[in-house]
Amino acid sequence: MPSAPRTDDQVLADTDVPALLRYGLTQDALRTALFGDGAVAAAVRLDRLGVVPRAVAFVADIARAGGLRYAADLPEPLPSPEASALLREWLETAAQVATGPEAEERAVRWLDAVAEIMGMRRDVREGRGDRPHDGE
């Protein structure tokens, strides 16, 4: 029997995004959790801080071009100080454990997944769930 859907608050309470980044980028066994609950929890947190999906996708592009450490060192990667501090924590965690190009790319793909989830959630909230996602 399928389990009942969890609320956003339950996902946030049950998910340690930095820990999932720390282990999900380096251990195959936790990769599904990182790209599942970890990406959803990150999307919910950023959405609640008023971040738009394209801002996260932009940071992913910066990380793809310059590396995770470069993106983590940006003075304000997102429009608000609180959201910037949160994303910077995640980027720093990822940069510490992503020691090779595969792990770096995995972290960037995770950021892309977070942006995509944010966009899908926004589309559903705004009644656009049946239209292609436009990045915001």
Description:
The chain is mainly alpha-helical. 71% of the residues lie in helices and 0% in strands. It has helices at 8-14, 17-24, 28-48, 53-66, 68-72, 81-97, 101-125. The longest helix has 25 residues, at 101-125. The radius of gyration is 14 Å and the shape is globular. The model has no long low-confidence stretch (mean pLDDT 91).
Quick structural summary:
The protein is an all-alpha fold and 136 residues long. Helices cover 71% and strands 0% of the residues.
What order do the SSEs take from the amino end to the carboxyl end, as H and E? HHHHHHH
- Give the N-terminus to C-terminus distance in angstroms: 35 Å
Uncertain stretches: none
Largest sheet: none
Helix content estimate: over 70%
Figure out the total of helices. Answer: 7
Radius of gyration: 14 Å
